[in-house]
Task: structure prediction
Amino acid sequence: MNLADSFEKISVKIFATPSDGAIEVANQMAALIKDKQSKNEQCVLGLATGSTPIKLYAELVRLHKEENLSFKNVITFNLDEYYPIEKDSINSYWSFMHQHLFNHVDIDPANIHIPNGEWPKEEIRKYCEKYETTIEKAGGIDFQILGIGNNGHIGFNEPGSSILSKTRLLVLESSTRIANSRDFANLSKVPKLAISMGLNTILKAKKIVLMAWGNKASIVAKSVEGKITDQVPASFLQQHDDCTFVIDEMAANDLTRFKSPWLSSSIEWTDAMIKRAVVNMSLKLQKPILSLSDVDYNENGLGDLLVEKGDAYEINLQVYYMLRDSITGWPGGKPNVIIEKHPERSTPYPKTCLIFSPHPDDDIISMGGTFMRLQDQGHNVHVAYQTSGNIAVTDEFVTRFLDFAAGFEDLIGTDATESKKILAEAQSFIADKKKNELDTPIIRSVKGLIRRCEAKATAKYVGLKDEQIHFMNLPFYETGAIQKKPMGEDDVLLTIELLRKIKPQQVYCAGDLADPHGTHKVCLEVVFESLRRLKEAGDEWLKDCWLWLYKGAWQEWDITEIEMAIPMSPDQVRKKRYGIFIHQSQKDSVPFQGSDSREFWQRAEERNTNTAQLYAHLGLTQYAAMEAFVRWHY
Ligand code: F6R
Result:
């Protein structure tokens, strides 16, 4: 895209998946390394750590192993390192770089430079200056790789960093420590300080590529299109003359060309596009939809739409009705009445509904209000817990339960020898457990059992009977580690079997692709693939089956996408909250919080209240909270 024709002030390349983007960057790097080799020159790379560049390093290793890419002429400088940290600590960036790249290629160890988390504090300034001069002596950085923090940091240059900053010791923002705590046993173990190249150091690189995947859309848009400000350090990259953002489609979502395409080109005005444009304008102007005027349309880049449709009043009504028709207290359809624009069919009644819950608590967290309404309105509701969720139970929690099990056997006078043995073994294993060490099979099973009991209690709290509760234990999840397997044949076969047994008229799935470890994504793929095969096989019942997507704990549908919004009264909000509380292993201290320190019930409530408020701002009735769904036409 030509920058002059766009709101983007940095060149952006968008790829379908992070892997595609990483391969492109690896190819660019490899081309530069080879070009320098052919001229007998050194190639100086600036490298980043974090989750973003992992696929890039994997591809570079592949190029080395399978396509003879040599790193003999490569000199590297890493952006940053925690402080203090021992070099060979599993969490040091020194270890990260060796694990993902240096141990697998033919780079000369003398050419590797990483700020050292063991430098004595009083001498850090001297070492940082030396780091800068070493970069200069190497001829400056030819190709700098960056990731981006959700607060806009590059390297560890947090908001407020000066454009003139150089390599230095700095304090990490708490949002950065929370985000990075995914790699540590808990937040308190994440160092508070780090050594990082400065913004000045980074901007001196001859070529810069910043990669961003997934839920970074908002900060990517701010960096690329917003004003240059030290509050968004990555926005300084607008001043560099050879910087490219390589991002995936999800990270591109907030760029104007996708979010408000009518502002950058002439478009075809579909109903969905009209809804998006008008809703966004209404929210921006803080004016209810029915109060928007011709002047508002003209002043907000929607003159084209006005010309096409005639006047604001008609467009306002059209969008208002679309929003009004998405709200219903009858998620399974309203029996005995035909409401033309109702999001669901009134027949058949009652419906058989199947809620797929990736983890054992997504059903209640993400659609608890709807779950309860479906049950209370007499539908035949089934819930299928797709994975065991066992890795999210803490060691302390499992020990407490094993202790209970042994104590219970003593209490009722049965032989507790075996339980006590298991408890003692678990305690000694946990005491010496290394970071990232897999739990023993028995500990894993008990962790799964704890979550299963919580899920069962929640489903019963909603009113389901045993035969309506299904535990699938999809095999792709059972690695015992954060990294899961891709979708496998067994996952699909188990899902097909369940769907055929239940033959639902409504299926609910987590359509949220941004959970931190990718479990939701695989769970959704499994359902999609199962439905695809069932369709191909010509299963008749499928013709009458609608698929609704909810978002998981981490985000909500954009208000303009929602096709069914289920309102909740304050009482229903409270009832849902108590349902979430049943998942005690996930309360108070959750092992994998991502960058959000709120508990799950708080996230759910804030999200549902926010949706209700958005509807109210748009001029519709104000409810206490709302859950939101998008229909998937498979
Ligand atoms: C890492 C670094 C950071 C990360 C950023 C994004 O060396 O300097 O700026 O690039 O925090 O982290 P991930 O990739 O984990 O989202």
Observations:
- The pocket of fructose -6-phosphate is lined by residues 48-52, 79-80, 147-149, 153-156 (CB under 6 Å).
- The first helix runs from residue 18 to 38.
